[in-house]
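Good day; I would like, with your permission, to put a structural problem before you. I would ask you to consider whether the tokens describe a fold that such a sequence might reasonably adopt. The full record is reproduced below for your convenience:
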Amino acid sequence: MFTRPLPKSLFTAENQILLDKNEVEDLEHLKVDILANRGLSQLLEIDPVTRLTDYPAEDKATADLLCRGDVLGVTQAESPAMRRLFRAIQPKSMQDCVFATALIRPVAVSGRKKATMFHDWSQERMEDTIVYEDDAIVRIAEALDIDKYEADMYRRAFAKKNEEKILEFTTRLGNHPKKSSIIEMLQSLSGFGLCRAHAVNLGRLIWALAYQKAHNTEKFWQACLKHCHGSYRRWVYRTEAKRVGIPVVTPSKSDQWDTPEFQYRKYGWWSTQSFMPGMYVRQLYMDKVEFAGMIANGRVFKGDRGKYVTFLTLGIGNGQYIDITIPRPFSYHDHDVVWGQGTIKYSNNSEYVQCYDSKGYRLENFGKA
């Protein structure tokens, strides 16, 4: 591969060559990413025989599970954002899962809000959008009447904000009738997108895991407890496993006498079948509610105008979760329980509570408030 001697400084003690991705590209070498995925281990634990390509492309039980957002434990698809996405687009097949994995990326659906797209994501509506990196290559090749290799060089220029190469592309566009919309579309490529092949593999894995959850629930959760280490807190997976009859115990010798509060503080979960006491949602009036829930998942997001919003998923009972938004940065890592009041909102087949009052507590202090 190398036509001239390489400096010794590029070699490690293990005789490996140190080149970053940019140097590999400059030298026009082939870079292969080797990725590990816990989802594959989870799937093989459930069914070591069936190949990804052998799962049925359509299955009603699997589609129903995805449409209602029942994706906890499905590696690569269990985030609150993916859960809402599945509810929005109502997937009916493996191919819809492939589409969803690409659509959730920041680069997808340039030039419009994703929420708008969720209402109508037909093929006709997708003609002027970029979902896969491959879409950008096709648009560029068609606009300049060039081959896809050269088009990919321009795609990379937009992704890396190479101003010299972008100017060259703009000049070559000349007086193209869609010049402004093409450039606006390609400027979104500075976000992280997926090539179609990557999306296909992820989509197949998500579909296969969802299929197993729908048809082989107990084995699914047994494998999940062993392999799934997502963004949810430890009690979430164990609570879901208990719901399908899988015994969950703590390492404590006095497990059966320990209180749920004690077990949670020491291990991060509890072994009793009942949910943590004191959690609830109740209506105040009209669309206003009050709630108290165990923090299952969270994320702080900074909007375009510099305003922060905190998204939280709270557990209020076995298999019962609510999504809430707090219009400020909220240090959820320091808390176990969130109490609050807010307004029920609906968006893209999902319900959430928009808080106007909220407070976080450590579990041991919640009952004293």
Remarks:
- The first strand starts at residue 280 and ends at 285.
- The chain is about 40% helix and 15% strand.
